[in-house]
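Entry type: protein chain
Record version: 2
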Amino acid sequence: MTLFEQARQCMKRQQWGAAVPLWQAMLQQAPEDIDAVLALAECLRQLGLLDEAVVMARNALAQAQAKVPASQVAGVPTGAGGREGALWAQAALQLAHLHALQQRQDEAGTAFSQWLAHPVWGAQAAVGLARVWLHEGYPMRAIQALSPFALTHAEATQAMALALFEAGDASRALEAAWPTAVDVTDLHALSNALMFASYVPGYEMHLQALRELAQPVMAHIGGGPAVQGLAHGRMTPQQTAARPLRVGWVSADFYAHPIGYFLASFLPHLSDEGVQSFCYDNGQKHDAWTARLMQASKRWMPIAKLSAQDVCDEVARDGLDILIDLSGHTQGNRLDVFARRACAVQASFLGYFSTTLVPAMDYLITDALHVLPHEQLLCSEQVAYLPHSRFCYAPPEFSPEPVPPPVIRNGYVTWGAFTNLAKISDGCVALWARVLLATPNSRLQLRWKTLVDSGVRQTLRERFASHGVSPGRIEMYGATRHADILAAYGEVDVALDTWPFSGATTTCEALWMGVPVMTLVSDRPAGRQSASILQTLDASDWIAHSEEDFVQRAVACADDHDALVLARQGLRKKMASTSLGDGRLFAHGFAQTLRRLV
């Protein structure tokens, strides 16, 4: 086998570190082999060595430009350019992607923009530019860049779906993401469609349709050689009582992320319950929350650069009793690992709210309010119920102290929703408009990263105006620091939960800052997250079961100024006394549940 074949084989297996010296050896023999330079740059990128990858990409770009005799406009060949032109494009776009990863968004955006009009490479450039705009919080600009390509280029179509979602249009996002032809290798498209379906009407209907499309995808990602190390099978009750339970956690979100906040609340206490934690980190971001989780783990294994089979081998070597997925169909998931049956017992928990449709996923760990008895039939997994809500919240150390409700000083009510705009459905806008119209002079404050986009703000104003709410009553703020978001709850009297997809992290944050949250339960697991949290606090007055009920409860809550003051003073203590804020209490119930499963 030649060096080239060996290197390509390593890349196919995602063995990036092994491929690097092979490409380097090739370049010693043929330093002007642009393919090898680009391949080496890609391996270095996958290994997180961005500066070294940039050097290689620039080298490839310079070599390619020197070989292309075609005319140029703004540094881009005007035609296809043949083989050398293709290498030029690949090098330029790879360099732009690297700049984006280095947070050099201006340079990346400029480079992508130069290629938008190119007849061959325009679509890939548009996808890259859209990612830059989405990173900066401008989905409308991303939509504009993708529009010429979204109907003809698969990657551009999925990028368009994400841009529409970020702009707050979940219905059009689902339409764009829906797999029109089954590509068994495209788990990403299936995951997008499953996620977006949870935000729009007709959830059960969409889920049933996607279940059929999921079958060949799951069969594909579950393929490959049989995983070794499963011969031990499930433990006997005597075995589980005799030694610590070995539990694996798989996520890309072990940092200042909802998964990090919730997991850090109880993971350190699992050791007291006879549970050892093994964390398999598929992410790139690490911070103080990561350090907390590392400290609570018996083993920490980075897996972002590993193939599914390699991860399965690591899991087998660790001799786990149960492997827990914390991502579901969210970004950075490793469902490919679970599809291969990496562990004798596998479960999905926390990061996803519904069925994964992975045949080898044995359990969905949740609570009795999230998945109702009749909804178990919708799940490919067996539902394992916790004795409490599935949420346990760890607040950031920089959380400010609650302040008195602003209605006392303002003389009018301020409603608030600091949430993903895709959750603000048309039905949600109509419901919130009724609340605003029922409370004269009240305001609604919205905060989300994409509200820096003037097009997004204008669309929201028009949606509320169609229900009789004047634009001046809607206050909108874009991206800001997490500490500032928490402090901004001091400007809100009552938080309005979204519908039909309710909040979770945002609900916990509002409550932690002493702000009541009004929720309307809906017809899906994701639509009862806030209700599960509020039920834990015995706050049934804030849980509505119809639109009329929601309006009446919201108005009554806002009118009771004494109750608002008491909420500011007492909600933190209440949270800390329940499984929502007491990590030891949550860990005890969670460990009991795990032992039933193994």
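Comment: DSSP finds 26 helices and 15 strands in the chain.
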